[in-house]
Amino acid sequence: MDLGIRGKTALVCGASRGLGYGCAEALAAEGVTLTLVARRADVLEAAAERIRKAHGVEVVAIAVDITTPEGRAQVLSACPQPDILVTNAAGPKQGDFRGWSREDWIAALDANMLTPIELIKATVDGMIARGFGRIVNITSSAVKAPIDSLGLSNGARSGLTGFVAGLARRTVTHNVTINNLLPGAFDTDRLAAIFSSASQATGKSLDEIGEKRRNAIPAKRFGTPQEFGAACAFLCSAHAGYITGQNLLIDGGAYPGTF
């Protein structure tokens, strides 16, 4: 299927690896010009070069902390009018809420709620003026089924979800959609870090923890960044203009509910 977005421009955050990279690669395969953002310059440029060689599209790599006003200003100076925005940031630390400080909460909100909102604010009016825009926020399955040890993430990402629910109904009349992708367990560095933390806390081996988590998923496997990216690319396509304000759960069937 031709997704109808060849020649569009996309700003993709957290794009050096994992789910962000999967989204960037899928968009590049559709002929989308990319601006990629992540913190580590070496890893980001290597990712950008792989995409250039594989898909022949223009890729600009900007290594900044997107959660800071200075970082956002630099990125938006390089890509002021994207047709597609994919927001993404690493989840905050795990633990017991009793040990989290106000600063921990502010950091979580900055990364996983306020930064996406600032990026949307900076780009959505241009999308409306041009009559096309696709915004996809990578959040977490924890928005739908909260995870106790990820309370910082639960709170910040749920706040973003509530904000998007209202705005998405106002922009869709201009062919600008806003949706959220909720990943479950994907084979990424983030999942490896969660397993490592669990191993340290319980004394169980990484293999044992990974196998238990895998077996709890009806699909009996972890997701791949490539299949996540494909879902993102569809939501960004010309065919997805009637989908807005939705939370698409991609978790191999792990969530047990009907709704």
UniProtKB/TrEMBL annotation:
SUPFAM superfamilies: NAD(P)-binding Rossmann-fold domains (SSF51735). Pfam families: adh_short_C2 (PF13561). InterPro entries: NAD(P)-bd_dom_sf (IPR036291), SDR (IPR050259), SDR_fam (IPR002347). PANTHER family: 3-OXOACYL-(ACYL-CARRIER-PROTEIN) REDUCTASE, NADPH-DEPENDENT REDUCTASE BACG. Belongs to the short-chain dehydrogenases/reductases (SDR) family. This is Dehydrogenase. The lineage of its organism: Bacteria, Pseudomonadati, Pseudomonadota, Betaproteobacteria, Burkholderiales.
